[in-house]
Structure formats: structure tokens, C-alpha cells
From TrEMBL:
Its cofactor is pyridoxal 5'-phosphate. It holds the Pfam family Aminotran_1_2. Belongs to the class-II pyridoxal-phosphate-dependent aminotransferase family. This is Glycine C-acetyltransferase. Keywords: Acyltransferase, Pyridoxal phosphate, Transferase. Residues 42-382 form the Aminotransferase class I/classII large domain. Its EC number is 2.3.1.29. It comes from Deinococcus radiophilus.
Length: 395
């Protein structure tokens, strides 16, 4: 006799409870900013991906409102039927200019972008070699392809070269990496990755979810940071949430990439186009970061200060190179308790344990933003000092 839906749901949920992995998301009672409100408490928010403070920025909201008034609440159809408005085309041209690429296409999220692009570019007989710490959306996107899949050790160029050497093909060879790794905050060594890939005739594919809006001139991203933005053998994808403060995904690169994705990428073909307000907000965000360099300056000034002070207190941040700043507590129970203790002190920062991160490297992941003040960071550091000493992580 088959299992009932009720039994299946309850069994799965109980398994999550027993393993301590059942998620109960915190609910924000105010806009997502450096200062937010949770359960009636005002907190300094170190958990958000809102790197540039754009999620509630008045200029971006004003442009979104104008597009809403002028173009309506929704697009009304998929892009290939009747959902492509002039504003969609205009924004994609704006994005391609910003990224210095031959073309750009917008999809609904960074997650679906990986599914759409990998599913379109890769075919049976191709070989794809992926960093072992790549994001779940890359892993899921690759599962949908018929390409031969291989893994190389994280940022290990010798292992990447081994994998390329041992897996030749008459088809396409693709090396896939995050631009910035979301748990450790390290930057992919893209200069070395591209060099190795080129020796074996491979294309490099970069998921820049946490690099776009963070690295490169005016936040053009990891590919620009390393000087590969105008190269046809480098594909960059990413999200339009995080630093850009809104929602969506993009693919940018070779001039022909956009046209092929329009014809083959299933998330694009079978999803209603983005609402006008989203397009307006994104257009404003790209304009704003280029017009005002202070956003990038504050982001990196704050990042350097927080990292230096966390290290001075005696915490391990794994040598993070970006605003993503992990603070290691070791055991998951300690990281979760530290997160609770920080919230009691007005600091919202989320604990992460296995299987999201290795068992002995449970942590709190902090994301520093341009919107934080020095006073915010000092208050957070003081709370970290108290919590770390109470839990015996630092002296």
C-alpha cells in the first residue's frame, strides 16, 4: 500500500526536526535595510545581501513607481509572445553596455538563469568541469543537461588542469565557477582559471551573484575585475537581487548568446516577463552606481574596517576577501546560540551549520553593506566580543 501525502509530509518534517535542520525564517517588519525590525525589535541587519543599500533607496523606488504608472502592473505574457516591452529591450541594452559584453538577457532569477543558460549551451557529448563549492543553482542546472559532469577541488588549478586533460571531447568544454563564493567570501582566481581553460580550448562560465555590484569598476563584477569582460570565451551570469536590490537574473557575453537563449532557454520561454516596476528599479540601480561612486567606496571602507576589527578580536573569518565575512564558531550549536545571543543585543546575523557548511566550520555569515555606519559596525563588534568570550571562542 502506498504512503499517504500526510505521512510523507510529516515524516520529512520530523526528520528535519530531529536533525536540527528545520528552518523558521525570521520575518522583517520593515524594509530590508542596515536597520530593520524583527519581532518588534530594532536591529542592525548583518544578514542581508543588500550590499549597496539599494533595496529601499528612494531614487530606485521613484523609478519603479514611474514605470508602474506608465507601463502597468504586469507584462501580461511571456517574452516570446506578447510580453516583451520596449523597457525590457532598453534595459538589456543598458546592462550589456554596463557589463561591456556583446549581449545581455534578463531572466527571472539567478537560479533559473543557471538552469536556462547551462541547459541551452550544453549538449550531449560536451564536458563541464565545476568547482566543488559552486552554488546549488549551478548543481541543479547541470543535472538538467546531458553533458559529462566533472568536479574539481575548490580553486585548485592543478586539479582543474587534471580534469581538463583527462576529459577531452569533440564537443564543448566548459569550466564553471562562482565569481565570489557565498559561504567563505573568497574570490575565484579567474585569471588563472581562464588561462588553464584556454590551454585546453574550454570556455569559462562565471556565476557572479555575489560579485556583481561588489567587484570591478562601479560594481561591474568579477569578470570585469579580472579584465575578461570583453572576451567571447567567458560567459557571465548572475542575479539582479543582492547588490542591485530588486529581483531577476542575467546572462551576458558573446553577441550571439542572447539570441540563442531567447530561442532555447526554457525559463525564458515559459515564464511571464518581468513586471515594469522591476525593470524600472533595475535601470535606476545601474544608473545610480555609475553616477555616484560613494556607494562602492562606503561598501569597501566598511568591509575593510569590519574584517580588521573581527580579526583583532581573535575571530577566524577564513581570509574572506569580500563583504561576505564569516565568523567561525566551530560546532553548529555554538553558531546558532551565538546568533541568538547577538539578536538579544540588537544584531541580526544568521548562524549556518552542516550541511550548508562543513561540520567543524559552523559560522555566522555577516554581509557588510554601504548603508552601515561606523557606529553600526562598532555596536556589532562590541556584541561579537561579548558573545565570543561568553562562548569561549575568543579570550
Amino acid at each position: 500500500m502506498s504512503i499517504s501525502l500526510t505521512d510523507r509530509l510529516q515524516s520529512e518534517l520530523q526528520g528535519l526536526r530531529d536533525s536540527g535542520l528545520l528552518i523558521h525564517p525570521r520575518v522583517l517588519e520593515s524594509p530590508n535595510r542596515a536597520h530593520s525590525r524583527i519581532a518588534g525589535q530594532d536591529v542592525i541587519n548583518l544578514a542581508s545581501n543588500n550590499y549597496l543599500g539599494f533595496a529601499d533607496h528612494p531614487v530606485i523606488k521613484e523609478r519603479a513607481a514611474a514605470y508602474l504608472r506608465d507601463w502597468g502592473a504586469g507584462a501580461g505574457a511571456v517574452r516570446t509572445i506578447a510580453g516583451t516591452m520596449q523597457i525590457h529591450e532598453d534595459f538589456e541594452e543598458q546592462l550589456a553596455r554596463f557589463k561591456h559584453t556583446g549581449s545581455a538577457l534578463v531572466l527571472h532569477s539567478g537560479f533559473t538563469t543557471n538552469q536556462g543558460v547551462l541547459g541551452t549551451v550544453l549538449k550531449e557529448g560536451d564536458v563541464v568541469i565545476s568547482d566543488e563549492l559552486n552554488h546549488a543553482s549551478i548543481i541543479d542546472g547541470l543535472r538538467l543537461t546531458k553533458a559529462t559532469k566533472k568536479i574539481y577541488k575548490h580553486a585548485d588549478m592543478d586539479d582543474l588542469e587534471r580534469a581538463l586533460r583527462e576529459n577531452d571531447t569533440d564537443g564543448l568544454k566548459l569550466v564553471v565557477t562562482d565569481g565570489v563564493f557565498s559561504m567563505d567570501g573568497d574570490i575565484a582566481p579567474l585569471d588563472r582559471i581562464v588561462a588553464v581553460a584556454r590551454r585546453y580550448g574550454a570556455v569559462t562560465y562565471v556565476d557572479d551573484a555575489h560579485g556583481s555590484g561588489v567587484l570591478g569598476e562601479a560594481g561591474r563584477g568579477t569578470v570585469h575585475h579580472f579584465g575578461f569582460d570583453q572576451e567571447d570565451d567567458v560567459i557571465q551570469v548572475g542575479t539582479l537581487s543582492k547588490a542591485w536590490g530588486v529581483v531577476g537574473g542575467y546572462a551576458a557575453g558573446h553577441a550571439d548568446l542572447r539570441e540563442l537563449l531567447i530561442n532555447r532557454a526554457r525559463p525564458y520561454l515559459f515564464s511571464t516577463a518581468q513586471p515594469p516596476a522591476v525593470v524600472g528599479a533595475l535601470s535606476a540601480a545601474i544608473d545610480l552606481v555609475q553616477e555616484d561612486p560613494s556607494f562602492m567606496k562606503r561598501l569597501w571602507d566598511n568591509t575593510h574596517y569590519f574584517k580588521a576589527e573581527i580579526e583583532r578580536l581573535g575571530f577566524d573569518h577564513l581570509g574572506s576577501e569580500t563583504p561576505i565575512t564569516p565568523v567561525i564558531f566551530g560546532e553548529a550549536s555554538a553558531a546558532f546560540e551565538a546568533s541568538r545571543m547577538l539578536l538579544d543585543r540588537g544584531i541580526f546575523a544568521v548562524g549556518l551549520g552542516f550541511p550548508t557548511v562543513p561540520k567543524d566550520l559552523a559560522r555566522i555569515r555577516n554581509i557588510i553593506t554601504a548603508e552601515h555606519t561606523r557606529e553600526d559596525l562598532d555596536q556589532a563588534l562590541a556584541a561579537y566580543a561579548e558573545v565570543g568570550r561568553e562562548l569561549g571562542v575568543i579570550r
